[in-house]
Amino acid sequence: MSDFLSPRLTTGQAARLLGVHASTVKRWFDDVPEDEMTPGSHRRLSLEQVISEGRIRGHETFLDAFGADAGLVWQASEAWDYGDYTSLHHLCYQWVKAGRADKIGKVLLHVGGGGRLDAAVLDGAFGGCLH
User: Fold this and answer.
1) Is the C-alpha dihedral spanning 77, 83, 87, 93 positive or negative?
2) Which of residues 83 and 13 earns the better pLDDT score?
3) Between vectors from CA 101 to CA 96 and to CA 102, what angle results, nearest 5°?
4) Beta strands at 45-46 and 8-9: parallel, antiparallel or unpaired
5) Cα–chain center distance at 89
């Protein structure tokens, strides 16, 4: 599977996603195969692995609501944390075309839950899509 559909996360990213400490993630993924390590011996975990392990251990994520689009939403969420709403804009447009506007509502709930739902987010992420 491509990295776009199943991105590779650092232990810090996985910890943020699951709401646990990075050392917890390292413990959970202690037996990561060498081919999933960087040359500097840092773990890189597939988003699917992280979500699956989180579910097993009772840690749900906002991505659970997106099913097969979880990887795309993760990529968009990483970008919007830096003020880049292009990926989210494209996702929303695709969901509207596919008749899946319910997913836009789920993204709004997530983005707004962090207190970040302001004019810049709405204009950047949804303005062009609605245009």
Assistant:
1) positive
2) 13
3) 160
4) antiparallel
5) 15
In whole angstroms, give the CA distance from residue 106 to residue 57: 23
Q: What is the pTM of this model?
A: 0.77
Name the DSSP class of 37. Answer: B
- Exposed / middle / buried, residue 68 (Cβ in 10 Å: 0-12, 13-18, 19+): exposed
- State the distance between the two ends of the chain, measured CA to CA, in whole angstroms: 33
How far apart CA 43 and CA 31 sit, in angstroms, is 10
**Residue in this structure with the two tokens 């830096």, named with its chain if needed:** 82
Residue type, 84: D
Mean pLDDT of 47-57: 91
Most confident option among 34-38, 72-76, 114-118:
72-76
The residues, ordered by sequence, that sit 6+ positions from 75 with a Cβ below 8 Å of its Cβ are: 4, 7, 87
Which uninterrupted H or E stretch holds 78? helix 70-80
| Sole residue written with tokens 């989180």 | 54
Nearest to 47 by CA among 58, 57, 61: 61
Contact 108, 91 (CB under 8 A): no
